[in-house]
Design goal:
heterodimer; A: 112 residues; 6-stranded mixed sheet; 5-stranded antiparallel sheet; globular; B: 115 residues; mainly beta; 4-stranded antiparallel sheet; 3% helix
C-alpha cells in the first residue's frame, strides 16, 4: 500500500507568517489530494494535483506536485487563525477502483 | 451544507454493548468508506463499499462490520464494544466515474468512547 509521510507533524506560527507542509510518498503519485480538518470535525477537500510539476492556488493556499510525482507541498501565505487545523494529504493509486490513502497529518496552530 | 450525515456525533458506552454508527449521503454516490482516526491524526481505512450489497475490508483490521442495503446508507456496527474501540470514526463517499477524480466528501465524524 502507498505510504505517505508528512512533515512537520505539528507547527505553531504567528499570524501573518508563511508556512509550508510537505507530503512525501514511497511510490509514484497518480493523484494527490489535500484536505483540512477542523478539530473534532470531518475533512474538507482543498485541492487535487495529478500532473508532475502542477501547481494550484486557492485564496492564500498553494499546492505543488514535484516533477517526479513523489512529493507535494502545501504553502500558506500570511497565515490567519482560520487556517488552524489538521492538514492531511491523500494519495490515489492506479485505476478507478483504487482507494484513497492518507498521510500522517500536520497539526497547525496560528497564534495572534 | 453537509450532504453526508453521521449519527451520533458523540457516544459514550460501557464495555460489551452493541453499537451502530449511522452514515447517510444524499449525493447518490456509489462508493462509501469508513475511516478510523487515531488521536495522532492518521486515518486508517477500515471498510468500503462500491455499491449496494458490496462491502470490503480496508487496510486496517477492524472487529466492526458494515452493510450496504441502500445506496445512501452505510452503517457500521460493533457487536461488543471494548475500550480499544475508542476512536473517531469518519464516513466518506465519492463517485470517481462522475467527477473523474477520487474526491471524497466526509461526514462530521462519530467520536466513540468505550469505558
Amino acid at each position: 500500500s502507498q505510504e505517505l509521510e508528512q512533515s512537520p507533524q505539528s507547527l505553531i506560527v504567528q499570524e501573518g507568517k508563511n508556512l509550508t507542509i510537505n507530503c512525501t510518498s514511497s511510490k509514484t503519485l497518480y493523484g494527490l489530494y489535500w484536505y483540512k480538518q477542523k478539530y473534532g470535525e470531518g475533512l474538507i477537500f482543498l485541492m487535487m494535483l495529478q500532473k508532475g510539476g502542477e501547481e494550484k492556488s486557492h485564496e492564500k493556499i498553494t499546492a505543488k506536485l514535484d516533477e517526479k510525482k513523489q512529493q507535494s507541498s502545501l504553502h500558506i501565505t500570511a497565515s490567519q487563525p482560520s487556517h488552524a487545523g489538521i492538514y492531511l494529504c491523500g494519495a490515489d493509486g492506479a485505476g478507478t477502483a483504487s482507494k484513497l490513502t492518507f498521510g500522517t497529518g500536520t497539526r497547525l496552530q496560528v497564534t495572534l | 451544507e453537509a450532504d453526508i450525515y453521521q449519527t451520533p456525533r458523540y457516544l459514550v458506552i460501557g464495555t460489551g454493548k452493541k453499537i451502530t454508527l449511522e452514515c447517510s449521503q444524499t449525493m447518490g454516490h456509489d462508493k462509501m468508506y469508513w475511516y478510523q482516526q487515531d488521536p495522532g491524526m492518521e486515518l486508517h481505512l477500515i471498510h468500503y463499499s462500491y455499491g449496494v450489497n458490496s462491502t470490503e475490508k480496508g487496510d486496517l483490521s477492524s472487529e466492526s462490520t458494515v452493510s450496504r442495503i441502500r445506496t445512501e446508507h452505510f452503517p457500521l456496527t460493533l457487536e461488543s464494544a471494548r475500550p480499544s474501540h475508542t476512536s473517531q470514526y469518519l464516513c466518506a463517499s465519492g463517485d470517481r466515474e462522475v467527477s473523474g477524480a477520487n474526491v471524497l466528501t466526509f461526514g462530521a465524524g462519530s467520536r466513540l468512547t468505550v469505558l
